[in-house]
Amino acid sequence: MTSSGLQQARDLMTSAGVHPQAIAVFAHSYEVLASGETGLLAETDLEPVTDLPRLADLTTDPEQEAAALAATAVVKLNGGLGTSMGMDKAKSLLEVRPGYSFLDVIARQVIALRRRYDVPLPVIFMNSFRTSADTLAALAAHPDLPVDGLPLEFLQNREPKLLSTDLTPVQWPADPDLEWCPPGHGDIYTALSASGLLQTLLDQGYRYLFVSNADNLGARPDPRLAAWFAGSGAPFASEQCRRTAADRKGGHLARRIADGQLVLRESAQTRPEDEAAFADVDRHQYFNCNNLWLNLAALADLLEETQGVLGLPILRNVKTVDPTDPTSPEVIQIETAMGSAIGVIPGATAIEVSRSRFLPVKATSDLLVLRSDAYEMADDAEIRLVPERTAAPLVDLDKPYKLVGDFDARFPQGAPSLIAADSLTVKGDWTFGADVTVVGTVVLDPPADGAGTIPDGTRLS
Predict the structure, then answer these.
(1) Do 305 and 415 belong together in one domain?
(2) 347 and 381 inside one domain
(3) In angstroms, rounded to a whole number, what is the distance separating the alpha carbons of residues 126 and 209?
(4) 410 lies in which domain range?
(5) Under a CB-based contact definition with an 8 Å cutoff, are residues 121 and 221 in contact?
(6) How many CB atoms lie under 10 A from the CB of residue 147?
(7) What is the domain count for the chain?
(8) pLDDT digits over 282-318, tens only?
(9) What CATH number did the domain enclosing 42 receive?
(10) Distance (Å, whole) CA 262 – CA 349
(11) Which residues pair with 127 in a beta bridge?
(12) For the whole model, what pTM was predicted?
């Protein structure tokens, strides 16, 4: 059925107006999926990476920084709805600091850099068909953000969800939109090219692109990194953070012995016998924080050479066609990750950055920390730890806090003070009053009556 399934998917994408380049990429990924190729990376074929340059050691001057920023554009990945947090709009609309959404902070960061360095520094959002309207409406509050001749957005492509039984496109008449999914953020290379944005940026004199997730407010377009990348001559660079014990289960950077190419290895690409080495944070010291730097001309040349198909490793994402209905048919979403391009772009490099450039919000626990007084927003909208702290407090919230609406209802007066907290673990269902302070390591056990209240002014220690 696989050849029939691929043809059905091609026909469906063509009739929906999906760009031929995106269809070609999907077809390549489909054939990899149907072949049963595992994409496993054996430990014996890899060696650790121990010699990355460090952002902390860079020496650049303001002229180098300004010249590099003047040739740089910014793309923020903004296709996610935050469905795991109960949202049905762009996650970037969430309030992350009092009175400011992710989008507001991004806009302020970019505008502050423009003023400081007298550069255009356009920011463009890669939206999905589900996040476009809400995002553009919210960005209307920042009339100075658009740059003449460039759009504020371009759209991710979309592809059919495939029945896991026979890899044919699923049909779901109850909500036909659910028959489609985005191809993962690895689609950025296809979407840049197919939308015409890549060529437009080149025509307007931009040479570099900084790409990061919209929900990572640590990923400000750092002028020192722009100057470093411009001077490196590399076609591609990935920002890497040091792994800690908490990162054992996540992917890591390595070097392929056969050709010296840097690669990312995820847990799904790891053989059972290599799991101990995979989790060894002293051996494999770096993880990708998904902040990337691209040389636009080099990318255009590579896409032309490969006829638009970079051949990124695929991710097999198994879900139900309706994520809210576990009884709906099981489907496979074929995805790729943009960071994995480090393994297919010759000459790709990486640089070590501090954890301050990796502040993702994947759950309400992360959101509580960023909303708290453990962080501050500087005049240039940089989000950073307050001087009293060297690391963020650890927060673990129980199931009643998983969805944003329920989370907000349990913190009606805002986040408790975490400036003196080491960790906060909340078990069960507690509603926090005003001016609650957490000191040291705190574990709240479930309340005896099923739900409890932390009174105003409580000091938890």
Answers:
(1) no
(2) no
(3) 13
(4) 364-460
(5) yes
(6) 17
(7) 2
(8) 999 999 999 999 999 999 999 999 999 999 999 899 9
(9) 3.90.550.10
(10) 7
(11) 78, 155
(12) 0.95
